[in-house]
């Protein structure tokens, strides 16, 4: 009797395994039937009934019962729809169909898979669906990764998502989601990554997010969040990335931000935040990138900012900052990029700026900086771009700039610089220079004699240059834009300018000069651009 029972049980088990296998095969063949384009013939040639589906490309099976546990068809350029039969793969653990061209709805049956741990459908731009309102209520309790980003997911984030208690990574990035982030998101205490950026989410940032103590990445940028940044965000002590730019927040940066000592990237540009920069920001010693630009921040730059020894990028332009650069500023010797433009900073440039040897880009446009450009700036050997236009800088252009061999772009226009521009300035790699609207003077422009043929832009308008343009201007083979307007130049424009075939814009407004007709005809690019600017109807 026992032997008979054992045989019956074994037969029943074999029947169940066979039925389950047939169900899996049918589900996969249904997917194949819904593919309208398979440019690599992966499914056409490989997914055939002549071979076991466990040997099909992209399929992983459990070796004990031959049930499908993995379906990986990522980045193989498939076009088609996802059939509801995929939900019949009841042993499926991982579903990866990233970077294809699936379109239409996401079958609700996928969200009923009780064993699933990974669902990733990223980059299927025409995949259009809502998340089920009851998702995670009856299934998905093992789900660790849900990535449905760069699709056309619409509707609201269901509050039931908070019942996916095993979730570690959640990305609904770059979709068309609306409404508020449900407070139940705070129940996902295993979450390490939360990407909700580039949607149309509204309302406050829920304070329950502060319950996510394991969170390392929080991206909520380019939405329509309002209200203050919750002070409880300081509880996210594991956080490495906090990305909130391009929202409609109000209020100050909370002092509790200083608790995020593991933070490496803080991006809160264009959020509407006001008030002063808290001194506690100096506690973020792991910080590598700080973006606070285009807000309404006021007050001075705190001295404590000099404690950010690992900072590579500092961008606080387009605010209402006042005062001088703190003396600790130059302690940030790892900085590669500084932008403090469009504020009301005053005082002189720190001589210690020469200690910032890693600096590659410096933007201090439209402030009220005074004094001379310090000689120490010549020590910035890696500096590529130097923009300090729109200030109140005085004195001569320091010759130490000649030592800045990496410099490509120099803009010092709209200051009060004086003297003669050293001709050697342009013997390096510089390609664009704007020294207009200063008080430079001299009998002629000795710098033009030494300019290299790599120049593309020269703007020296509104100075006090006099004399003639030298014949050597014809050597500037790459020159596209030349502006010498509003000076005191005289004489005839040298015929060699006809050799500058790339010239698109020439402005000699208010200059007593002329150009022979035959040379005009040589400047083909200039004729096409219609950028002939001179007075008295000569051109």
From TrEMBL:
One Gene Ontology BP term is: regulation of root meristem growth
Concerning Gene3D superfamilies, the annotation shows: Ribonuclease Inhibitor (3.80.10.10)
Q: Which domain of life is it from?
A: Eukaryota
Q: Start and end of every Disease resistance R13L4/SHOC-2-like LRR domain?
A: 183-293
Q: Give the matching InterPro entries.
A: DNA_repair-toleration, Leu-rich_rpt, Leu-rich_rpt_typical-subtyp, LRR_dom_sf, LRR_N_plant-typ, LRR_R13L4/SHOC2-like
Xref: Pfam families: LRR_1, LRR_14, LRR_8, LRRNT_2
Q: Per UniProt, what is the membrane topology?
A: Single-pass type I membrane protein
PANTHER family per UniProt: DNA DAMAGE-REPAIR/TOLERATION PROTEIN DRT100, L DOMAIN-LIKE PROTEIN
Q: What is this protein called?
A: LRR receptor-like serine/threonine-protein kinase FLS2
């Amino acid at each position: 009797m026992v032997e008979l029972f054992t045989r019956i049980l074994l037969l029943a088990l074999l029947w169940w395994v066979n039925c389950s296998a047939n169900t899996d095969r049918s589900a996969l063949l249904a997917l194949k039937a819904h593919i309208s384009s398979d440019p690599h013939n992966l499914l056409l040639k490989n997914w055939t009934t002549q071979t076991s589906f466990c040997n099909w490309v992209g399929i992983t099976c459990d070796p004990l019962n031959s049930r499908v546990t993995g379906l990986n068809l990522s980045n193989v350029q498939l076009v088609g729809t996802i059939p509801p039969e995929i939900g019949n793969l009841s042993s499926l653990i991982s579903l990866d169909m990233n970077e294809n061209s699936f379109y239409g709805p996401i079958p609700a049956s996928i969200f009923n898979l009780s064993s699933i741990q990974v669902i990733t459908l990223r980059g299927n731009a025409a995949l259009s669906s809502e998340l089920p309102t009851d998702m995670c209520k009856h299934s998905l309790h093992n789900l660790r990764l849900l990535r449905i980003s760069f699709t056309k997911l619409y509707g609201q984030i269901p509050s039931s998502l908070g019942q996916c208690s095993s979730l570690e990574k959640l990305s609904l990035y770059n979709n068309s989601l609306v409404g508020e982030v449900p407070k139940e998101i705070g129940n996902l205490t295993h979450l390490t990554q939360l990407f909700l950026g580039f949607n149309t989410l509204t309302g406050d940032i829920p304070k329950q997010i502060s319950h996510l103590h394991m969170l390392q990445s929080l991206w909520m940028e380019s939405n329509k969040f309002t209200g203050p940044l919750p002070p409880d965000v300081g509880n996210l002590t594991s956080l490495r990335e906090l990305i909130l730019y391009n929202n409609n927040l109000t209020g100050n940066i909370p002092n509790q931000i200083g608790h995020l000592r593991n933070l490496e990237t803080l991006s809160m540009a264009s959020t509407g935040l006001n008030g002063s920069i808290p001194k506690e920001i100096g506690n973020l010693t792991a910080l590598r990138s700080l973006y606070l630009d285009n807000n309404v921040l006021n007050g001075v730059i705190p001295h404590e900012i000099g404690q950010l020894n690992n900072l590579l990028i500092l961008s606080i332009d387009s605010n209402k900052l006042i005062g001088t650069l703190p003396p600790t500023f130059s302690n940030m010797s790892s900085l590669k990029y500084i932008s403090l433009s469009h504020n009301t900073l005053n005082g002189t440039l720190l001589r210690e700026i020469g200690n910032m040897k890693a600096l590659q880009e410096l933007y201090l446009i439209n402030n009220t900086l005074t004094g001379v450009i310090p000689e120490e700036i010549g020590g910035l050997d890696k500096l590529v771009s130097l923009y300090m236009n729109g200030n109140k800088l005085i004195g001569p252009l320091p010759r130490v700039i000649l030592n800045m061999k990496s410099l490509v772009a120099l803009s010092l226009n709209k200051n009060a610089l004086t003297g003669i521009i050293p001709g050697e300035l342009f013997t390096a790699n510089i390609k664009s220079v704007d020294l207009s609207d200063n008080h430079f003077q001299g009998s002629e422009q000795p710098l033009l004699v030494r300019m290299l043929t790599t120049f593309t832009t020269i703007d020296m308008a509104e100075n006090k240059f006099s004399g003639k343009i030298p014949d050597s201007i014809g050597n500037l083979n790459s020159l596209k834009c030349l502006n010498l307007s509003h000076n005191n130049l005289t004489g005839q424009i040298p015929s060699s300018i006809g050799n500058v075939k790339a010239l698109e814009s020439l402005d000699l407004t208010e200059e007593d000069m002329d150009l022979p007709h035959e040379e005009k005809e040589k400047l083909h690019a200039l004729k096409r651009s219609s950028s002939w600017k001179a007075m008295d109807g000569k051109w």
